[in-house]
Amino acid sequence: MTGYTFAVFDMDEVLYDFEHPVRLQLLEELTGKPQAEIHEAVWGGPHENLAEAGQPDTADGYLAQFADLLGYPIDFDTWADIRRRMMRPRKDVLDMVRRLSKQTDVALLTNNGMLLKKALPVCAPEVIEIFAEKSHVSADFKARKPEPDVFLRICAHYGHEPRQTLFVDDRDENIIGAEAAGLTAHLYRSPAELAAFLRKCGFNPG
């Protein structure tokens, strides 16, 4: 038996490998601009954190902002393809979450803007298969990890108590934020450690 009714998972570096250098290389090939210049222009300022908190609040708005920061026109298909190519699914972890989804309510919560949400079927089809409409970017809740509000809002949205909710992420600060909101959190390091955590919480990860 378990007292937990909800489990929330991060995406990058938990369910998928996340290779930012690959993205920079692909953007360099696209634009002809140096990778360091691209990184500073797009990710060096406050824009990405604001987007993760819902500013801008649409996929089109995010894409327009990205193109402006990049200084190069980019369409949705190109952006989504680059995002897809910088990710690799971690089959063992995805299979574990797939099994868990048969035992309790599960959701995805990744610090990202609204454009990634639109692109998830292209970038991360496994996420859509497992989480369906519960595949969330932080922008959906107008707050970003590690702010406790984002955890409280996703729990409230699905009618679960924070004390009955598990959270898995690869970043220490997000674990601290989740615990401050009352969730039971696990710092992801390996599939074996995740399986042990889920067993301790009363689930059968397989």
UniProtKB/TrEMBL annotation:
InterPro entries xrefs: HAD-like_sf, HAD-SF_hydro_IA, HAD_sf, PGP-like_dom2
Any one GO MF annotation of this record: hydrolase activity
Cited Gene3D superfamilies: HAD superfamily/HAD-like, Putative phosphatase, domain 2
Keyword entries, A-Z: Hydrolase
Pfam families from the UniProt entry: Hydrolase
Keyword Cell membrane: no
Statement: the UniProt record of this protein carries the keyword Signal: no
Superkingdom of source: Bacteria
Protein name as annotated: Putative hydrolase of the HAD superfamily
